[in-house]
Design goal:
Blueprint (H helix, E strand, L loop, with lengths): L7 E5 L4 E2 L4 E4 L2 H9 L7 E6 L4 E2 L4 E3 L3 E2 L4 E2 L4 E2 L4 E2 L4 E2 L4 E2 L4 E2 L4 E2 L2 E2 L4 E2 L4 E2 L2 E3 L18 E2 L4 E2 L4 E3 L3 E2 L4 E2 L4 E2 L7 E4 L3 E4 L9 H8 L9
Parallel strand pairs: 1-4, 2-5, 3-6, 4-7, 5-8, 6-9, 7-10, 8-11, 9-12, 10-13, 11-14, 12-15, 13-16, 14-17, 15-18, 16-19, 17-20, 18-21, 19-22, 20-23, 21-24, 23-25
Antiparallel strand pairs: 25-26
Length: about 220
């Protein structure tokens, strides 16, 4: 079954580069299924937009309807699902699996697994997994849409951490490596272990001292326009 005519068109900004064995504009599953049942339904997918000065390395898969803003870098073997958005200056790290309808803000660093419809703010780092609760395995795969995590600006999810369900992290909160979080992490808190939350003002460790000082330092006034 040839799917070439189902792909979304791709527009590429100035100074952008794409590596070897990349797939851009791949059709979403629902349209492939519809085409298999009735080839007369075939039509081009939603367009893909890649901004200026972007780099997509090797074996990257970008589905239809994806928008990648200026100055982004997408490392090898990344998957970005349909209708997802990646903000300017963001980096998607080797092997990241970005599901469908995900929104990623500016200057973010994303690795690991990010479930459907997750929202990630500006300047976030996500090295762990953001997943649904998956409480309805008895229904059809596409009928089991659940609430997704939301990671607010300047927050961090450490390596091997797992954030489960429709909870909110931050802003300016830190989920430590290996932690498991199933409830909201308020602004300026650190999550360790299983749902153990500590306000940053009470944190006595030394490893996050520089980050906490950065978060709590007075911000320079915004330049007038």
């Amino acid at each position: 079954m040839n799917l070439d005519h189902l792909y979304g068109t791709v527009s590429m900004g100035q100074g952008s580069a794409v590596g070897e064995h990349c797939t851009l504009g791949y059709p979403k599953e629902a349209r492939i299924r519809a085409f298999r049942e009735d080839p007369a339904t075939a039509e081009a997918g939603e367009p893909v937009g890649i901004g200026d000065r972007c780099m997509l390395f090797n074996q990257v898969i970008v589905y239809e309807g994806v928008s990648i803003a200026d100055g982004c870098l997408v490392e090898d073997r990344v998957r970005i699902g349909y209708d997802s958005r990646v903000g300017p200056g963001s980096r998607i790290v080797y092997g990241a699996y970005i599901c469908d309808r995900v929104s990623i803000g500016a200057e973010a660093r994303i690795a690991g697994f990010v479930c459907d419809a997750t929202r990630i703010g500006d300047r976030c780092t996500v090295m762990g997994d953001l997943v649904h609760e998956y409480t309805r395995p008895h229904v059809d795969w596409w009928d089991a849409d659940e609430e997704s995590p939301r990671v607010e600006d300047d927050s961090v999810v450490g390596y091997g951490a797992r954030v489960v369900g429709g909870i909110r992290i931050g802003p300016r909160s830190y989920v430590a490596a290996g932690a498991v979080v199933t409830r909201d992490v308020p602004p300026e808190h650190i999550a360790t272990g299983v749902n153990t939350l500590t306000p940053i003002r009470d944190w006595t460790g030394t490893r996050l001292r520089a980050l906490i000082e950065h978060w709590t330092s007075p911000r320079p006034p915004a330049a007038s326009r």
